[in-house]
Amino acid sequence: MAYMHIGKDFVPPDVPGKVTGRIKYAEDYTREGMVYSRLLTSPIPHARVLDIDASEALAMDGVFGILTADDVYPDGEPQSTGLKILTNEPTLVGEPILALAAIDEKTAETAISRINVTFERLPFVLDPLDSLAEGGANAYPGDQNTFVFRQGFATEKWTEDQVASFRAGNEPTAEAQQTWSLGDLEAGFAASEFVYETTFTTAGYPHHSMEPRSAMAYWEDGKLYLHGTSQSLTALADGMAPIIGVPKEDIVFINAATGGGFGQRARANSIPSMAIPAKLSQKINRPVMMRITREEEFTIGGARQGFQGWIKAGFKPDGVMSACDLYIISDNGGKGGGGDASSAADCIDVLYQPDALRFRGTSIGSNTAHRGAQRGPGQNQIAPIIAPILDKAADALGISRLEIRKINAPRNGDVAGPRQTPFTSAYVPESLDMATRQFDWEGRQARRRQRNGSKVIGLGLGQGYHNAGRSGMDGIVTMGTDGRLKIHNGVGNLGTYSYASTSRAAAEVLKMPWENCDILNVRTDNHLPITSPQDGSNSIFTNTRTMFGAATDMLNKMKEIAATDLGGDPADYDVSNERVHQIADESIGYTYAEVAQRATELGGKFTGEADLPEELAEWTQISVSRLAGSAFMGVYHDPRHEGNPPGFTVTCCEIELDLETGKYEILDMVTIAESGTIVHPQGMENQLVGGAVWGIGLSGYERHLYDPQNGLPASTGYWQSKVPTYLDTPVKIGTGWVDLPDPENPVGARGIGEPSMGAVSAALTAAITDALDGHHFATAPITADMIINHLAGTEENAAPLAQNNFRG
Amino acid sequence: MGEIVRYKRDVWGEEVILGVSWDLLWVVAVAVLVLLAAHAIVMAALAKKDLDRPTAEGRRVVRHESIDRTFHWLMAVSIFVLIFTGTAPILGLRIAWLNIHWISGLLLTFLIVAHIIRSMFWQDLKSMLLTPKDFSEPFDSTSKPGKYYFEQKGMHWAATVVVLAVIVTGVLMFMQIDTPFWNRTNSMPEDQLGLVFLLHGLSTLALVALASTHIYFALRPEKIFYTRSMLAGWMSEDEMAANHDPAKWTPKEAE
Amino acid sequence: MVATSHDVMPDIELYQPTDEANALALANTLGSDGWLLAGGQDTFGWLKDRNKAPGAMIELTQIDAWKGIRETADGVEIGAVTTLTEIANNPIIRERYGVLAQAAGVVASPQIRNVGTLGGNLNQDARCWYYRRGLDCYRAGGNICYADSPEGLNREHAIFGASRCVAVSPSDTAPTLVALDATMVIASQNGTRTMSAQDFFIGPDRDIRSMTALDDGEILTAVRLPAAWANAEFYFEKVADRNVWDFALTSVAAVMKVSGGTIEDARIACGAVECVPRRLEAVENAIRGQQRSDELGARAGELAVEGARPLNYNNFKVPLMANLVARAVRG
Fold it and tell me: Which residue of B has its CA nearest to A710?
């Protein structure tokens, strides 16, 4: 389909600001009378606050007050998963106990050092398996170690023998908290020619957003103005209002740009710390800036869940995955949260379409960083574990590694997951072909495991998947009498340019030149509709639907006005060149400026005063009501879509691994997306390359290091939490996309954020395994020391099945 | 003057004992010097000019068997080495002291244990026991002691307490470092560890004071024959008669 | 109360002497209370986290006499506040002492090398994260090591020469200077003294609070590279988790005189395996007079790691060090 905007590169409006440094992040704002807040955080992994003596600090010049959990939760702290703003029972080192406001940060720090907090130390645990064993410590309040959905905190215990057996590499025998299965597992294994079984671990890893989650807040005329960071403005503000205790109509959330979100700035309950300056400002009646340090970002910011799992996969002689049995203990950290394990099983079902699959999973808390959304819940953790298993099966069955993936690949019409949801569309064999062709996968096979001195070549093929689209959000577009299109977009400015890319769908509908479009975002008082939180790879699918819908509503209204005023039926009209005109006679029509003028005169439904969609979210209703009557308006509530819109990726890579140092160089990498129609090619390439760096980090570098003896996080900066650098990543990462439209999206688009990481991690781990003659570490990340130990036959003294977080 | 105890933050930020304040080393040094100097001055002032000291000539009796003297000097050397190596880093000397320190400590521990066993089965333990009568001895010019007089017994038992405190705490500390025999475990809670360090430090200070006092008296002119006896093993019958009661101590004649 | 993250500079006096005499006078007056500041890359973290609280900083970067690279009668002298970038790019160093240029060129990241100095790199404090967290460990004057325990994170720590503290020398340039038999020039108000690079670095057995032989009031002003080892055969390799912006897991610097494939003389030192750059004299003696070969390299590697005492998570350093030494020797 020939589009005016879709599939075309453009310069998003925030780019000049980012290049020049003029764009403002939360920390860049000031307000007259602004004071600075710093946090006193828990130095203990699990404790109860018995007393806070802040008298000396409060007596200091330039100190304006403190905010404690007692101020925030006068009726007691909520007993639920997720971070509290402040707490009297910290369950991880670094959890905020209180905030103090002072004239400057230096004074605040000095004052905090004079506050004496008396703690009662409580038992703590770092390894979920230690907690799972009878007699092991429990991470959560009330001596509990797990959170059961819709039931609350609970305690889950295995016998010591059961834990020991699992650690020794055997299938867990205890009953799991969560189970789902498909097909006949026993029959699947019976039909298998090749069966592979192993325990595995993956490490929890932190976000590393460039911008810490700083926030500034002040109250004026009963309204709260909160400068913060988010992945989507309205999605975040919608949840932040009740946390702060302010009506939705009285909060203005301001967020021009966000320096990286990756999931944890999507929803208010994963970044509630922004409520601290708001509450403190309310208490001391001054604007409060709360800058979050890099170290705090690690503990307040949270991390992905780590896995301790067991997997058994069977393959029939023809390469079909006949059965997969998966049991995962997921590390829920100090606060609970995250359903990664089930998603990992779902991912296997999606990508390899096994005849039978069983998932069993149990989530256990540990007194480590809280866990939650972060670029792929489960799908990406399992990617580096499963890819080498596919390769082992391929080698054992004499099938090529490409072929076994094609044999098992999901296709249009396939279903997957516990509810056997059909894909909206799926073209994985095509993406496998495209990736291997672009990479010359077959041509490179001759180099596989070739030695050059101490170095050896490894080749890896990986796949990534994530559900990549939602629905049910709202859209608003307006047009002033100048004829410019105003796209009210709550999608956050994360650096993905999605806020602009999704807006292009509205411009497309109205065939509006891009230079005549204004995106209204930055602040929620720009009358923004509720949008998806821009997490889980869903922005482009979800919000092009709402943008398209709102613009279509405006288009229909234009036609209706023109038909009413100029004669004929609305169906007789179309738009082009910023005019609505009759199809038969283009001279009969209105310019956009004229039709906007007419709409304003007519009022009613044309200006949002009547006939609004019934299901509009509260947030959208507030925005529409404030706009009502002021401008020509298109407004839309997106109905639910059918099926699972998937995002798929395929990555090929070649590495050269030095057997004497355990280091490897990624010689070449190609990653291909299958995510429907591509809306913004440059943005797409950015997503794929950025995701690739994350994937390299997942496979080789990133872990949230914790000292198991004392529960201290070692990851307090980039020294002990190693993101890959330019010299650890390929100079050029080849990209491409299948670019076939998805029928459930008006412009054919699906998302790609999460899968771009998983495929790369899978491919890189497969390549490392390949270079090491198939040695399967069954863990992520695989660091140089592990490779050297393997090659030299030296053992490290880690507890069996300990996550990599505790082996630093 | 600063504090006696030094504190630190434990791994979770709570204040715990770190050890003794080494400023006290100077306090002890000055106090001992002042007291001993005062003693020397008083003794010099009281001294009779034509002092009739017992002669070393004539027949000799055995005061210390060679094995006892060996024990004494080995203990003396190990204690000196322990004090030197223990205080060197405090005084700012950059020497590799720790291995020498614990090896000396082990030697001393072995010697002490051996000495305790010997004293109970092969030595005249009673000769060193302090009885109520001993406490009147310094004030009774008519009474002479047996083998050891009151101050000697007092020094011995004070040293016993202090050295036992040093080696017990020292062994506990030894168990907290890597050695050829084991790897450290970090198993002792930090507050207990601090207490052990404090006791080790305090007993070290006491040991410094005792050792200094012991050396001072060993070098006093009127006592030097005891030092000689610890080197050569004998004292003259004249020295014996002047200072000890043969009814309470009957030494063998020296060869 | 311990707050784990401060990230705010405290009030601190800053002296910016522009001549040597002033700097030395300040160092003498301030003693242990004076913090020598060059590029600041190992300074600001300590101060902002309030884990070190010196009374004043003496900034050395305005003293021209301590900057730059000069040829001398017996080699080359490098001012201690010369930046690592300048050393890495200097034609004389690259041509005659390439091993140092190479090491200076892989320190941290380009940004850090642009301001970080040779003196700062040599004098940087231990990189044990427990210590850097501000815990009162042995090195911080306490009575415990948190890294050396059955569960402690000690993957980056020492396999040789530990004495209570198990931290390693983090400097990339230090092993090369030991290998090059460099001389350190140390100034104080009492005059100037020199010592070999090997003696400059001291382990925790001798002083658990300091990694160098510098006394209070002393400043490392220059490093002299002897002509004797100019244009020798060099080998330097640093293995770190990341290829840039990271500390070595193990590094090797070898300086050899080779004729017809025979090693006539050699000096080899490894970094990140001990609290000081570990000079491998046994290896040097074993390879002197030998023909370079894979076998010789393998033997040298085995010899290099004799006596290693790994902790829980740094077993890998033993084969890694052996492999790096083998590479350096076999050519």
Answer: B11
